[in-house]
Design goal:
Blueprint lengths: L2 H6 L2 H7 L13 H4 L10 E6 L8 E7 L2 E7 L12 H4 L2 H5 L7 E3 L8 E3 L1 H18 L1 E5 L2 E6 L4 E3 L5 H13 L5 E3 L4
Parallel strand pairs: 8-9
Antiparallel strand pairs: 1-2, 2-3, 4-5, 6-7
């Protein structure tokens, strides 16, 4: 590249000699930026979602191309967040696309130091068995002579992005098992 070509490639030179004296348009573009296309422009579809991080429940637009998430942005139609996301919400694409994301159940045995993969059916059986054992071991028929029929062996703390219907169903499930310590993060 010659000296003249090199100097003409500088944005300040293009700003002073071209039709963009304030440097807010073409003078600021390099050959690379001139050819950039937004990740949202190539999406096949946009799926509405809710940020999973906190109790605010900011709306998100998830851009999908060929079955893969290409971008996640704030949903301007959301009455909660009006298109804005905090830094954690803006980084939720990494939850789906990170190479470090696990797509299998991992289990570490008591006193173990390593994780081992489990199939989903085995993991669900282990969870069900432990819930039933905790219920049995923590069951109380009476408390100070008063009939209570409850268990203090487990509790439920629902996540922040659960909606009213999901919280209702969780409350019903845990109440039917005798639990009394049931809460959701949205109320905390």
């Amino acid at each position: 590249m010659g000296l003249k070509t090199f100097i003409e490639s500088w944005p300040v030179y293009r700003q002073l000699t071209g039709d963009d004296p304030l440097g807010r348009g073409s003078a600021a573009y390099s050959a690379t930026t001139r050819n950039l296309v937004p990740r949202t422009a190539t999406a096949d579809r946009v799926v509405k979602s809710v940020c999973p991080y906190c109790a605010v429940g900011c709306g998100q637009n998830v851009y999908v191309q060929d079955g893969r998430v290409t971008q996640i942005e704030g949903d301007p139609d959301s009455p909660v967040s009006r298109g804005r996301l905090c830094p954690k919400g803006a980084a939720t694409k990494q939850l789906v696309t990170s190479s470090g994301r696990e797509h299998r159940v991992l289990y570490r045995r008591p006193h173990g130091t390593d994780w081992e993969p489990l199939d989903l059916d085995t993991a669900m059986e282990m969870i069900a068995e432990r819930v039933l054992r905790s219920r049995r071991q923590g069951w109380q028929d009476e408390d100070e002579g008063k009939k209570v029929n409850r268990t203090l062996g487990f509790a439920s703390l629902g996540g922040a992005t659960l909606d009213n219907e999901e919280n209702y169903l969780i409350k019903k499930l845990f109440t039917s098992m005798g639990a009394v310590q049931i809460e959701n993060q949205a109320r905390i």
